[in-house]
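Narrative of activities, Objective 1.

The group set out to show that a structural description can be obtained from nothing but a protein's sequence at a throughput compatible with the screening campaign. Below is one input-output pair from the validation batch, recorded exactly as produced.
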Amino acid sequence: MDFKELLLSAKESDTEAVSQLLLMYKPFLGKESIVDGIFDEELYQELCITLLKCIRMFRF
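Output recorded for this entry:
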């Protein structure tokens, strides 16, 4: 499945597609969740939620 198909499936609430996208972006989200050298779990969760909201709102 290519990225576009994965995104479309996730947009339609396919839990496997959502999981794959979260795994795909996990390194980036984890990197952006480090504040002053410390991993911030709450920030990581907020970034995951933001990603999920963006997936639902995305238009082709």
